[in-house]
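Components:
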Amino acid sequence: MNRDPDAYTRCMRRTLTIARVTLAAALLTLAASTAFAHVTKEVGDGAYTVVLGYIGAPLYVGEIEQVDISITDAEGNGVDGLAESLTAEILGPDGATVVVTVRAVRNSPGKYIADFRPTVEGNYDVRLSGFIGEYEFDEVFSGVDMLHADPVVNDPARISVP
Amino acid sequence: MTAGTTPFYSRVRRAVTALLVVALAAGPAFAHAHLDSSTPDAGAVVSDSVTVVELRFSEGLEVAFSTFKAYRLDAEVDLTADNAAARLNALAAVVVSRHNGTAEDGDGKIDAVVENLDGDKSVVTLTFAEPLAPGHYVVMWRVLSVDTHVVDGHIVFSVAE
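Structure:
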């Protein structure tokens, strides 16, 4: 079979370029999906750092939303295995509260997640309490601060069509 | 094949490998070789002397390619308190995060002989040279299942005075 080596090489280079662009786009998408605003608090005078945020902003009534929790030690290393030592409570509008399960994110050191489903529009804070190492803590993370949005949870009717 | 295509194919291979790594990392988390039970039980407070910890997994493990470590937790925890389990787990979590699956053992590691029980690859024993003194302990593992998946975990138990 006759084949122009230059044309073949150009074609394969083009394919390689497309593959690179696709890989870069995939990595950027992954990074952007978790890059929303977060709030940081220290536990044990800086022995540990707790960072909370909402994943998937903007949040809407009726959707399953997620609290993103990251816990690191003073060296910045993730602390695993804390799910059973943490309690997450969603503080909704008009005093409504619910305690939700905290679970570890597999293969992500120090990362935890908690699901909840808001049923009305308004602001939702998160109270996280429990133990990290030898320290006990109890902190409230403002939803408005975590999301830089007010209200935190919106009515999907505003974006519904028809 | 011309000599000029060799580096090209090498780059293609690297790109495909990178894509596969990303795809696998983003894949779903299936459960493999989880702990079915143990002696002592997770969270147990035992009064008898403990020289052997037995871990029974849901499937066979390759001990040669897995790590098992035991540490004493240096803390006083009131076991009658409602939050005792949460406190002990938090203490253990820090030790596990530092030492599980790493070459860095740090201080406090208890030497143990690790082996499968009578050729049963799903059961692993840690045998200590001396009975464990009263206190709190964490046993951690990072294991290679026979299906080649890596799974880690830990249990905490206490030895009463």
